[in-house]
Amino acid sequence: MRVADAIVKALKEEDVTTVFGYPGAAIMPLYESLRTSDIHHVLVRQEQAAGHSASGYARIKGEVGVAIVTSGPGATNIITGIATAYMDSIPLVIITGQVRSNLIGKDVFQEIDITGATEPFTKHNYLVKDASQVPKIIKEAFYIAKTGRPGPVLIDIPADVLDEEIDYLYPKEINIRGYKPTRKGHIGQIKRAVKALDKSKKPVICVGGGVKIAEAEQELMQLMEKTNIPIVSTLMGLDIIPSKSPLNLGMIGSHGFTQANYAISNADTIFLIGARVSDRSILPANMFSKEVEVIHVDVDPAEIGKNANATIPLVGDASNILKEMTEIASPLDTQEWIDEIRSKQEENEEKHIYEDSINPKLMMQELSKLLPDDAIIVGDVGQNQMWAARHVEMKEDRQFLTSGGLGTMGYSLPCAVGACVADKNRKIISVMGDGGFQMSLSELATIVQEGIKPIIILFNNTKLGMVHEMQYRNYNREYGVDLDCNPDFTMIAKAYNIRTAKINDPDKMQDILKEAVEYDGPFLIECTVDPRETTL
Amino acid sequence: MRKHVLSVLVENQSGVLSRISGLFSRRGYNIHSLSVGETEDPTISRMTIVVEEDQQTLEQIKKQLNKLIDVIKIIELRSDTAVYRELALIKVRTDKDTRAEVIGVANIFRARIIDVDIDCVMIEATGDQSKLTALINMLEPYGLKEVIRTGITALERGDTELKSE
């Protein structure tokens, strides 16, 4: 069997139905095999989007996302997509074409060392030299991508290898001697963790995206409800516990809520689960400064002790560990502690302040009411991301996707494309700013081509809002980052036959949102936002 | 900060060295020396990596190395339970007056003369790092033309084996 056909066959053995990609010379043999297969190929408009769309697809489908691009510039373009997935632990398999084997190392047309380039931010990568190894490599790549702490795995295949003939045999078993992810938590440590919670006066659970990846939402909810321990979340863990749950204190971090940060800073026991203590969510100083018991659960041992010292490290799968903890945990009286935290909550009601513009926070709150409970909100990066994170209510089935680790502007639109392809029935909202939108608006074509129906909410303040805010705060002036030459974005969307609305009148906000939510097709709402609107 | 000697079993494949050295450089860990060679199993190479870091960083180094798929096993070799050896080749300037002296120094350190020319000799020495450093210091006054050291390689004493399984 030709290697290109073998790859397609192997993808099908891995239950791949959809791939995201962009063709080019070196990858042509694989495209020829794809053409004659029933795998759905989504043609993005720039390779970075293939990475982000595969990421959105993976996050909604709960499967490995697959992206296929060509050598050289195709491969370098997808780098940001790979790095974004790596930072947020999203399972991807990326197949890149490579120049012919005998030309590698000679700087020929469209040659780049992509395994070398992506080595720091792939979970693993392969440069295929021996065609007969292809089925084994694909099997391993999927296994590595989705098990343990998930992440992107890249396979670089020279064009001549794609055309070689091999005996196709897809391995059933996998045995990678250097890769044995831990699943079950150490029972002694589990008991120690529960004991620490039992004797705590001011406990807090800090949940991160890892709990979502482990599909341990229910288990976490059960532990929380049994023990009455209040919970805070990182940006990546935002949608795990419903916003309105009485024990949910909200998001922590530099853009988080005062009460949530208060809880972390004043707790005597912090139970971190699936959270890697990133600088944007927790400043380790909070934990180092005093005698705090830190229980840290993560499937990746290297995350424990990296940014914060854990007094009780616990390596393993969140779902198993939570289940076992819940069994032996006892109810705590945390009411006084919760009251103390709640007393720090700031009650400021949002109002429209500036004339002829929309308050994005109110817009998010309004949207939140109109959306179905199982809607998916995809935040971009910057002010729009935090407006969405802070003001969209999370319900049990609602999901919030964003680029939390790398903070990749332009992520939202292609990610939403992948999410829409993964689930055609749910409402998917891409929230963007005018900066990020201009980084990926080429994907409007993909939306139309795929017949998918996202709602794009574009906050246009003709600024890179968060940069603007930072410059103002740190340097006391604004300089050079205004997006002065913005086009009429609705005209661009109209050129793609996408329905649009432009609003600057708060009174019309509700009606237009309703129209967009009810409309059966893609819809772009451009909102005029006053540059003085702040993130918090 | 103390020196630590890590013995690492890795897949004997191209790219492994770059993965490991890349990990050290991008996370800001200092490699003091690294030596590598094939083991009794030709699919496995064994690296001896000497690092100079505090205990917490050392733990991170081990964990990060373990995350690499090509890394099979890591152990730390402690000086009280393992043998450290390094090889050095030293080319020393000599003339008819100093040659005998240089050979004498080499003999004291149980080093061997492996090449002689009119105005230099080449010395081969093995030992732990401090012995080689002492030898090199002794030879320096005669004029060192070239010095090369392999970096430490090490094995645990006694009936132990570092196996992939």
Number of domains of chain B: 2
Low-confidence stretches of chain B: none
Structural class of the helix and strand makeup of chain B?
A: alpha+beta
The most extensive contact between chains is: A-B, 17 and 21 residues
- Derived structural class of chain A: alpha/beta
End-to-end Cα distance of chain A: 58 Å
What would the principal axes of the Cα set say about the shape of chain B?
elongated
CATH homology-level superfamily of the largest domain in chain A: Thiamin diphosphate (ThDP)-binding fold, Pyr/PP domains
Count of beta strands of chain A: 18
The fold-level CATH name of the largest domain in chain A is Rossmann fold
The CATH architecture term of the largest domain in chain B is: 2-Layer Sandwich
The fraction of residues in strands of chain A falls at 15-25%
Beta-strand content of chain B: 35-45%
Number of helices of chain B: 4
> What are the low-pLDDT stretches of chain A, counting only 5+ consecutive residues below 50?
none
Helix proportion range of chain B: 25-40%
Q: Helices and strands of chain B, in N-to-C order?
A: EHEEHEEHEEHEE
Q: What is the domain tally of chain A?
A: 3
Average residue-wise pLDDT of chain A: 95
CATH architecture title of the largest domain in chain A: 3-Layer(aba) Sandwich
